[in-house]
Amino acid sequence: MINACCENGRPTEALEVFNEMRLSVVKVDEVTLLAVISACTKLDCTSELGEWVEKYASDNGFLENTRVANALIHMHGKVGRVKRACEIFDSMSVRTVVSWTAMIQALAVHGHGAAALVRFTQMLRQGFWPDEVIFLSMINACCHSMRVSEGRQLFKSMVEEYHITPWMEHYGSMVDLLCRSDMLDEAFEFILAMPVKPDPVIWRVLTGACRDQGNNSLARKVIAHVIDMEPEHGGNYVLASNLYAADENWGRVVDVRVEMGVRKEMSRCSTAMSYIEGFASTFDNGVLPSGVHAA
User: Fold this and answer.
1) Are the CB atoms for 271 and 244 separated by under 8 Å?
2) What is the mean pLDDT of residues 229-240?
3) Mean pLDDT, all residues of the chain
4) What gap in Å lies between CA 265 and CA 41, rounded to an integer?
5) CA-CA distance, 213 to 178, in Å (whole number)?
6) How far apart are CA 145 and CA 284, in angstroms?
7) What is the dihedral sign for C-alpha 71, 74, 75, 77?
8) Which residues of 125-164 are buried (b: 16+ CB within 10 A; e: fewer)?
9) Global pTM?
10) CA dist 114 to 15, 85, 132, 138, 176, Å?
11) Which of 71, 80, 186, 242 keeps 20 to 30 A from 33, CA to CA?
């Protein structure tokens, strides 16, 4: 019941069920406590709630449980209690890759890039083999602290040393890192050199960075790729129009707006034709649509 509430977006109700369970003097096990910590995490819990669930784990002998400790590190790290996450991590007698991942993610999300790199080095020295999630967390850590050289080295190591095929998220984090570091041209070249087709999100990250940093010439090149990938997305045309307007290129502004209008009309016609074809097909099969009666 606790899991059902938690997994369906009702973490407060999950804690209410847990309270009923305690009042019924039902013994709490590891699975139950993990579900409760998950509920607290989804509530972006206050320090009081976080301290309460951790104290409950400690009082009932669960703080030495590696899985429970991992969950507590994740919970504290998510809401910025990085110091407490580090204290729990350092007190653990047994750590897994999940432990290191939770600790590094906590540091990465809150801009502690140097500390994340230290933990990553410690992890490697202790013989743990990094996976895709660890590398994504590390590149994100470099991104938040704008450590370009370290980010490049991590991405290279992931591919060449550990033979890990990057996810789209890895490529996106690298583009974000380069954009945050004002290396827009390099970010553009990185995207063009990707062995897989970049998704629209990556192109939009670069477009937004170009706009924010005033590099309209590169932004216009990038938005062309974005429109080519998502010709039906109206926001792309608005962005392109704004870029041309910033350069006072009013002719291109008109062209883009006209193209956006044409795309909208084509989309409406396509929808209407699909509806009519479906109606005709149903009728041809001898089935009258609901509400239509034979003469």
Assistant:
1) no
2) 65
3) 82
4) 46
5) 13
6) 63
7) positive
8) eeebebeeebbbbbbbbbbbbebbebbbebbeebeeeeeb
9) 0.74
10) 36, 16, 20, 10, 18
11) 80
CA dihedral 16, 21, 24, 30 (to 10 degrees): -150
According to DSSP, residue 215 is labeled: -
Q: Would you say 73 and 102 are in contact if contact means Cβ atoms under 8 Å apart?
A: yes
Q: Sign of dihedral through CA atoms 17, 22, 26, 31? A: positive
Fill in the amino acid letter for 273.
M
Asked whether 187 and 178 are in contact (CB, 8 A), the reply is yes
Where is pLDDT greater, at 42 or 188? Answer: 188
The answer to whether the beta carbons of residues 218 and 189 sit under 8 Å apart is no
Alpha-carbon gap, residue 141 to 90, rounded angstroms:
20
d(CA 234, CA 260): 7
Topology (CATH level 3) of domain 1-125: 1.25.40
Q: Could you read off the pLDDT of 174-192 as tens digits, one per residue?
A: 999 999 999 999 999 999 9
| Structure token pair of residue 223 | 């938005």
Q: Phi and psi of 96, rounded to 5°?
A: -120, 175
Q: Where are the domains of the chain?
A: 1-125
Residue type (1 letter), 33 = L
What distance in Å separates the CA atoms of residue 107 and residue 128, rounded to the nearest whole number? 19
> For position 28, what pLDDT does the model report?
84
Number of residues in the chain = 295
DSSP secondary-structure letter at 100? H
Q: For 245-284, how does the pLDDT look when each residue is reduced to its tens digit (9 = 90+)?
A: 655 555 555 655 565 554 554 445 444 455 455 545 554 5
Hey, what amino acid is at 54?
Answer: E
**Of 175, 180, 216, 214, nearest in space to 192 by CA:** 175
Would residue 6 be called left, alpha or beta, if left means φ above 0 and alpha means ψ between -120 and 50 degrees?
alpha
Sorted by sequence, the CB contacts under 8 Å of residue 88 that are 6+ apart come out as 54, 63, 69, 72, 73, 76
